[in-house]
Every structure is written in C-alpha cells, then in structure tokens.
Amino acid sequence: VLFIGNSHTYFNDMPHLFAEICRENQAEVEVAMLAHGGRGWDFHIEEPEVRFNILYGNYDAVVLQHTAHPMGGPEVMNRCGRTLIEWVRQAGARPILYMTWTARADGEAAQAGMSGAYRRLQQETGCEMAPVGENWWKYHREHPDEEMYAEDGEHASLTGSRLAAATIAEVYLGGLRD
What we know:
single chain; 178 residues; alpha/beta; 5-stranded parallel beta sheet; 52% helix; 11% strand
C-alpha cells in the first residue's frame, strides 16, 4: 500500500500503525510513503517519482491525502485528485481517499466543508474513502478526555494517528473481503 500525502500522513509513522492493524487482522501488508509536509495533490502530480511509483510499484492500493490546514480550493483538490485516481486505476490498484480532520481552532463545525469536498470527489469518481475526519469527531464526542491533537492543534496525537490508521485499515481490509 502506497501512502501519498503530507505531515498528516507521516505524523507518528501512521502507515506503520496501519500495517500493524492489518497484520493483527491476518492481512500481510507492506507500506511505502511519499509525503512532504504542507504539500497537496497539486505538488504530488508534478513530482515524477509519484507517477512512476503509482504506475510501477505494484501496489494493491494507494491512499491519497490532500492538504488540510488550510485545505485550499476545491477546484485544485478535484482536478489533481482525479489525476491521481486515474493513475492509480491505470496501475490496477485501488484508490482510497484519506479524509482529514479540521484543526482544533476550527472545531467540529468546520468538518462539514472538508468532508463535503472529499465526498464529492468520491461520488464523482466512485473510489473508496476512509472518513477519518468524521470518525475523528465522533470519537472525540464519545471520549472527550482523550487528546486527539498534537500540541500544535492541527496534527494528530498518537491516539489520533491510531484512529486514522484504523479507519484506513477498515476500508482497505473491507475491500479485500469483497
């Protein structure tokens, strides 16, 4: 499984947490990552190693995470996301969108905008999505004493990264059973 994203992907070595969860569920998986802090899909489609890795890496799935704080314009996300999804499908792999969460300062009310952008892209392309941002706020409501954020109020604490990894693993493993 290839993870493409930024610091919300690499914080707390989240792809490794994902692999551990998959192994606990009797699914052997190897992970690779192309992630650069603060960068979105517009950056990734311009980097030659991204297209090459997608097309020739023999991945089963590619997890795609766009910028989060700020998220940027939906037109860039949509256009660049479609390009990445097309490359993933050309390679015969499963594209999985990794919906992120809003910053602590923006709160749960702002999640609807972020979720909507990911959900529109999912509906338009028919790809799978790991609704990490929505699960984040649900978990926060159910466990208000658990710290989901790192000190900066944007990135995930270890608990937040585990939730992200578990949400992505649930989608990935569900697709293996289908």
